[in-house]
Amino acid sequence: MQIICLGDSITDCNHLFEDFPLGNGYVQMLSEMFQKHTINISDTMQFKNYGIDGFTVARVLENIRLQRIPLHRSPIITLLIAVNDIGLMMNTDRTEFQKKQMMQDFVAHYKELLKLLTRDARQVILMEPFIFPHPEEYQTWIPYVRTMSTHIRQLSEKFNLPFLPLHDYFNNEAIQKGFDQITTDGIHLTQYGHELLATLLYEVIIKEFH
Question: Which of 4, 89, 103, 158 makes the best surface tag, with the fewest CB within 10 Å?
């Protein structure tokens, strides 16, 4: 059984440049959890990290269309994407009309991606994008995160796929423990943040085997 993790830098975690081929984030931690806690399953598990720093949903879709990622073994796929799409909206002097159009494009690309993934995958697990108001400049990003989250949740229902909520969960953890304990810069996760994500994702994936 293959577990393929798709996404941007949060998934990537330098997996192309580190000694760990799965990176130094939640994908590596997830693999270790299966090795430690589910020996009878982990013997047949193979994890693949296909997260790429800077990727948007359109770039992930392009990779799937060009078959750069093999899906012929009916893998379980996890998908965490959207923050770079929001970054393009917020950091490129777009008008409100242009932002609205970009949001529509995001939803269209995400839907098309799910059509392709669900043809071959055993399961596709959708993860909610998240952002932290720390530094405060990201406060203005939160409404866009929530809008994208709503669209992704609706698509999860349309395709009958698991949806893992993360934004409120991570922000509540950050309020309790301190933002610097969870995020390095308001977007990316600390090692502890990655541990939390790996634990949540492990619990969702393990349900596929029961």
Answer: 158
